[in-house]
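Quiz preparation item.
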């Protein structure tokens, strides 16, 4: 990405582009990404031509309501048709009944290829749909369940405000949450901006699905082709954070949307308030999904095709990760100071990960770091002003992995043990809030205090006992 933690940016620079992809793929692998799927991905075949579903529905609805159809490629085509009908004195209820009839006349549609590609990425187990159709659930059923209707679909509407179940974090269940309703003859799904305003008012005040928003706050959102007005984008990003945007820490959201990236005022807003929101600025949402699928397929181990018959097994590459270590995470400028910290900890009997010696040419750096942090006894971020500089790709990845592990750990376990080596402010929005939530150690005359070493030794030994089943 090439931006400091906490900043928003348009990811057009090649080095930032690749860094963003690496972080996103790591988040996907860890199962902490929620795709928010929108109308720009609904490329369907109707009557021998390929067209976006909402564009086709808008044309048919305009004919049914006898209003001028929207221009080709216009933004929010259904909203435009509905507004033209209402401006001519039409009754609102007719919009929804006519749209339901149009959907029935269209008949069954094959799930669009972009949705099937998303569905094939197995770490995605919870999806938010912002469209009025069932195509996402159909794609998931086709890709994962042989066409059986095994995807759980939860539909929100002001008249029936359903929340997610208690086991929403169970990756064994595949779920779609229809945030803006589902097409019906009733006025309980979103066609117009006024509908969206009413839904969001209910989501916030009248019938808030608390478990849903709690789940969104713990995950990274991947907002794909939703064609939202910018005020809805701002709402969704804020609603998925525990605190105000100016204090945003700990999570990254990614927006892939033609309207958003062209709205310089919105991009400026996301940058000014350091929301940790990235706006992907190359190609369409469909292009992005194609690239995500390509990269994920190249990265993830593929299950064998049963129809292909037995084949010689190709052993997966072994990623060596030392278990039960003290993991030192630091900026390269601080290596000499960190070396002295390592020496003190090793002298106290601890096994220490120090990447100058523990990474070798040919290693899969990101995966080895990930596995080692997952298995380490203590994660020790060595904090300094150098940590706040830009282009800290692996340092940021280490922090992200540690935050995930910290959330898994028992409340009684001391997992993150920050060590501060200069006057870097722990309250900086560029540092994870998890680092400021625990007591940080500080060097005294360039060395760790005996009290700090004793405390870390106790925590280290407790971990080894639990690991050994003692």
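Solution:
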């Amino acid at each position: 990405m090439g931006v400091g933690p906490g900043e928003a940016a348009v990811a057009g620079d090649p080095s930032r582009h690749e860094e963003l992809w690496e972080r996103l793929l790591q988040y996907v692998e860890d199962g902490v990404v929620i795709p928010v799927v929108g109308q720009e991905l609904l490329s369907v075949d109707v009557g021998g031509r390929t067209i976006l579903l909402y564009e086709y529905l808008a044309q048919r609805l305009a004919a049914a309501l006898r209003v001028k159809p929207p221009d080709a490629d216009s933004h929010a085509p259904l909203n435009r048709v509905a507004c033209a009908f209402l401006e001519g004195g039409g009754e609102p209820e007719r919009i929804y009944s006519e749209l339901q009839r149009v959907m029935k006349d269209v008949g069954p549609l094959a799930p669009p290829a972009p949705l099937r590609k998303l569905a094939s990425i197995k770490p995605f187990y919870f999806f938010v749909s912002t469209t009025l159709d069932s195509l996402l659930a159909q794609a998931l059923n086709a890709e994962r369940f042989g066409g059986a209707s095994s995807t759980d679909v939860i539909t929100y509407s002001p008249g029936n405000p359903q929340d997610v179940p208690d086991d929403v974090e169970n990756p064994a269940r595949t779920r779609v949450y229809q945030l803006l309703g589902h097409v019906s003859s009733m006025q309980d799904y979103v066609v117009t901006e006024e509908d969206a305003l009413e839904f969001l008012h209910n989501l916030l005040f009248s019938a808030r699905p608390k478990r849903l928003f709690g789940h969104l706050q713990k995950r990274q959102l991947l907002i794909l082709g939703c064609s939202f007005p910018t005020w809805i984008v701002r709402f969704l990003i804020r609603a998925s954070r525990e605190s105000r945007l100016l204090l945003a820490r700990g999570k990254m959201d990614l927006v892939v949307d033609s309207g958003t990236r062209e709205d310089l005022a919105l991009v400026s807003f996301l940058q000014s308030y350091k929301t940790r929101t990235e706006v992907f600025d190359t190609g369409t949402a469909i292009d992005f999904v194609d690239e995500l699928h390509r990269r994920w397929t190249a990265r993830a181990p593929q299950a064998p095709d049963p129809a292909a018959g037995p084949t010689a097994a190709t052993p997966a590459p072994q990623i060596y990760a030392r278990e039960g270590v003290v993991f030192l995470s630091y900026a390269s400028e601080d290596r000499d100071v960190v070396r002295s910290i390592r020496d003190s900890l090793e002298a106290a009997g601890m096994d220490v990960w120090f990447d100058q010696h523990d990474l070798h040419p040919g290693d899969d750096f990101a995966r080895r770091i990930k596995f080692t942090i997952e298995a380490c006894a203590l994660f020790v971020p060595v904090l300094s002003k150098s940590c706040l500089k830009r282009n800290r790709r692996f340092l940021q990845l280490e922090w992200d992995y540690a935050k995930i592990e910290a959330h898994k750990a028992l409340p009684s376990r001391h997992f993150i043990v920050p060590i501060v080596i200069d006057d870097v402010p722990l309250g900086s929005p560029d540092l994870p809030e998890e680092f400021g939530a625990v007591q940080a150690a500080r060097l005294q005359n360039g060395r760790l205090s005996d009290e700090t070493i004793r405390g870390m030794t106790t925590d280290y030994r407790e971990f080894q006992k639990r690991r050994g089943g003692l």
